[in-house]
Write a sequence for this structure.
C-alpha cells in the first residue's frame, strides 16, 4: 500500500510541475528540459527567467525580476542546479547561477539595494544594482544572504547563516556576518 501511495504522490507532483513549467513558458520564461518546479512563485516578468536543463526548484522558491524588458534574462540558473525551499531571487539587474550549484533553504540572493540619500523617502529613491554571480559547483548553506555585486567562484562553500557582502574566490570556504574566509582543512590538520 505504501508503494502505491508514494507512486500516486510522485505522479501528482510531476503533473503539477509540468503544468507550472507550461504556464511559465507560455508567459515567456525560458525553461530547459528535465526541470522540476515545486509550487514556485514568479510575481512579475516571467520573461526575465532562464532555467537550463535539469534545474530543480523546491517549494516556495520566489523568482522576482523587476524592470523593463531588456531582451536577456535577469535571473539565469545553470544546468542541474538545485534550489531548496523558501529561497528568493530578487533581480533588477542580473543574477547568474552556474551549473551544479546547491542552494539551501531560506536563502536570499539579490543584485540591488535602495538608494539612501538624506532627505528623501527610501521608496522614492531608485534601485542601485550590480550583477551577482555564483560559479559552478558552489554549495550555499541554509539561510544565506548574498548581496549585490558579489561574485562567488567555482567550488566555493558558503556556510549556513552567512551574509556575503564581497567576492568569494574559487575553492574558498566562508562563514559569518559578514562572511569571511575560513582556514582550509589542510592547514587545520598541519597545525595539530
Amino acid at each position: 500500500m505504501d508503494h502505491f501511495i508514494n507512486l500516486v504522490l510522485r505522479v501528482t507532483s510531476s503533473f503539477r510541475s509540468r503544468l507550472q513549467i507550461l504556464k511559465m513558458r507560455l508567459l515567456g520564461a525560458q525553461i530547459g528540459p528535465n526541470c522540476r518546479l515545486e509550487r514556485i512563485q514568479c510575481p512579475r516578468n516571467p520573461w526575465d527567467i532562464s532555467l537550463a536543463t535539469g534545474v530543480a526548484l523546491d517549494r516556495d522558491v520566489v523568482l522576482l525580476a523587476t524592470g523593463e524588458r531588456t531582451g536577456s534574462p535577469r535571473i539565469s540558473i545553470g544546468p542541474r542546479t538545485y534550489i531548496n525551499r523558501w529561497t528568493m531571487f530578487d533581480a533588477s539587474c542580473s543574477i547568474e547561477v552556474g551549473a551544479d550549484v546547491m542552494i539551501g533553504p531560506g536563502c536570499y540572493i539579490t543584485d540591488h539595494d535602495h538608494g539612501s540619500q538624506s532627505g528623501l523617502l527610501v521608496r522614492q529613491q531608485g534601485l542601485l544594482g550590480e550583477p551577482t554571480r555564483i560559479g559552478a559547483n558552489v554549495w550555499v548553506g541554509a539561510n544565506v544572504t548574498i548581496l549585490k555585486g558579489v561574485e562567488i567562484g567555482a567550488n566555493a562553500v558558503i556556510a549556513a547563516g552567512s551574509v556575503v557582502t564581497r567576492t568569494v574566490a574559487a575553492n574558498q570556504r566562508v562563514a559569518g556576518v559578514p562572511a569571511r574566509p575560513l582556514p582550509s582543512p589542510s592547514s587545520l590538520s598541519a597545525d595539530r
The mean pLDDT is 90.
